[in-house]
Amino acid sequence: QLIQERDVDAMLGADSLRKSVIAGIAGLSLVLFFMILYYRVPGLIASLSLMIYAMIVLTIFKMLPITLTLSGVAAAILSIGMAVDANILIFERMKDELRTGRTMLSSINIGFNRAWPAIRDGNVSTLITCAILYWFSDQLGATIVQGFAVTLAVGVAVSMFTAITVSRTLMRVIALTPISRNVRLFIPTGGGEIKDHVQN
User: Fold this and answer.
1) What is the C-alpha separation between 119 and 89, in angstroms, rounded?
2) For labeling, which of 84, 90, 106, 192 is most exposed (least CB within 10 Å)?
3) What phi and psi values does residue 33 have, to the nearest 5 degrees?
4) Residue 16 pLDDT > 80, yes or no?
5) What is the pLDDT of residues 92-113, one digit of tens each?
6) Where do the H-state alpha helices sit in the chain?
7) Is the pLDDT of residue 134 over 50?
8) How far apart are CA 183 and CA 194, in angstroms?
9) CA-CA distance, 171 to 45, in Å (whole number)?
10) Three-state DSSP class for 90?
């Protein structure tokens, strides 16, 4: 009994993949622009971390190797969003620590430590979902879902590593430079109440 039949022309597949890659690059560019505009110096650090994340993921895809189908590109774009989400959690925790009057380095360390449980739980639950998707797709022969699960799992694992390791290291380095004296550069747009508190 025929359950499903698909016929995709080679040109159609190449065109769809090209458009998906263009959409991914455009989306990543908009995310980087927003992070820098809103979070300022931390946003710039997050953008650098995301660029490192993208290079690591592409390297892993090349080494395994993983074929980037349309579903794989969708999973990669989704994992970028999760990497940004981790950085936002960290920066918001940092902002809360700055509001209490802590020093820049102390705010960075405590902010990362307090954001870690939420980042860990969110990413672990996604990895469990990927494992379930992979198992069921393997049983049913749905290779599209299988590729999505593998690509998303790799992206989530790398995003967790870059958010906690790369971003934290870069933020600590910046905190030891004269730039850290200008607290306004580390406060998100609209955080005026923190500026006044720190200045007083």
Assistant:
1) 8
2) 192
3) -60, -45
4) no
5) 888 888 888 888 888 888 989 9
6) 10-39, 41-63, 70-99, 104-140, 143-161, 167-175, 192-199
7) yes
8) 9
9) 7
10) helix
Does 199 have pLDDT greater than 50?
no
Rounded-to-integer distance, Cα 178 and Cα 197, Å = 20
pLDDT at 140 over 80: no
Phi and psi for 40 in degrees, rounded to 5? Answer: 60, -120
Judge if pTM exceeds 0.85: no
Question: Across the chain, what does the average pLDDT equal?
Answer: 81
Cis peptide before 65 (omega within 30 of 0): yes
CA distance 163 to 155: 12
- Closest by CA to 56, choosing from 64, 90, 150, 121, is 64
Say if residues 126 and 110 touch (Cβ distance below 8 Å).
no
| Omega cis (within 30) before 178 | no
Token pair recorded at residue 66: 């993983």
Distance, in Å, from the CA atom of 91 to the CA atom of 52, rounded to the nearest integer, reads: 19
Of 183, 41, 44, 187, which is closest to residue 103 (Cα–Cα)?
A: 183
What is the distance between the alpha carbons of residues 130 and 198, in angstroms, rounded to a whole number?
44
Q: Which of 102, 40, 79, 98 lies closest to 161, judged by CA?
A: 79
